[in-house]
């Protein structure tokens, strides 16, 4: 499992830069990943019942060399238990004030700052919803990958993808199985989502997150920190990124699979 480098908490100029981005964002998501050694105790401390979890299956799409990721583009398809499937074309990092006005007005478009101990990133996402079986049909080869994405998403992708890279040329990186739970309503003043990402090599990422409006960022961050401290949740571990871990795992697998044919 790949982790991000250990980094100090946001202070001084870094905090100022983040808050400047936040002002022009639509929302903020505050995140914390819990070290594997502390995950069981965290689940118990927060009173989570695994049997209430919603099952999700996540697929990413990129070249084996991760050309999209290197260009700051992420494509994802997701199957969700008991719900429609969804897709997203995401750009990161972005500066909200520099985004075209026409794309900002799209109903499926949003700008969000993800903040975690030691770092933050601002991303722009164009989301889509489709029938429950649509993602499965595309990743299994019954339909082309591009059929999962709307015309608007395909235009957005074409405007930012590396030259010569099309959606139907991409490899399927996945699936990753995800269990999603929510903290009991009485636990906190707003919804806290808990996601357990289960990787094929047996490793896990447990992430706690909550969303807020830009002008609520500092207050909600302090309230969430206080709650987690009171519950004894480990907050000093290295932070991990779910997408990066998935992309790197499946990229290495694809490169390994095709290596014998090239030697």
Secondary-structure topology with pairs:
Blueprint: H1 12-23, E1 27-34, H2 39-45, E2 54-62, H3 67-70, E3 73-80, E4 85-91, H4 101-104, E5 109-116, E6 119-130, H5 134-139, H6 151-160, E7 171-182, E8 193-198, E9 204-212, H7 217-230, H8 242-262
Please describe what this structure looks like.
The protein has helices spanning 12-23, 39-45, 67-70, 101-104, 134-139, 151-160, 217-230, 242-262, and strands at 27-34, 54-62, 73-80, 85-91, 109-116, 119-130, 171-182, 193-198, 204-212. With 263 residues, it is an alpha+beta fold. The chain has a single domain (12-262), classed as Hypothetical Protein Pfu-838710-001, CATH 2.40.320. It has a nine-stranded mixed beta barrel with strand order 1-5-6-4-3-2-7-8-9, surrounded by four helices. The chain starts with 11 loop residues before the first helix and ends with a helix. The model is unreliable at 1-8 (pLDDT under 50).
Trace the largest sheet across and list its strands: 1-5-6-4-3-2-7-8-9
What structural class do helix, strand and pairing data support?
A: alpha+beta
Distance between the termini: 27 Å
Task: Give the tally of structural domains.
Answer: 1
**CATH architectural category:** Beta Barrel
Q: How many distinct helices?
A: 8
From the spread of the alpha carbons, the general shape counts as globular
How much β-strand is present in the residues? 25-35%
Q: Uncertain runs with pLDDT below 50, 5 residues or more?
A: 1-8
Q: What is the ordering of alpha helices and beta strands?
A: HEHEHEEHEEHHEEEHH
Query: What is the β-strand count?
Result: 9
Question: What is CATH's topology name?
Answer: Hypothetical Protein Pfu-838710-001
Major sheet summary line: 9 strands, mixed, barrel
For the record, the CATH class is Mainly Beta
State the helicity in percent bands.
Answer: 25-40%
pLDDT averaged residue by residue: 91
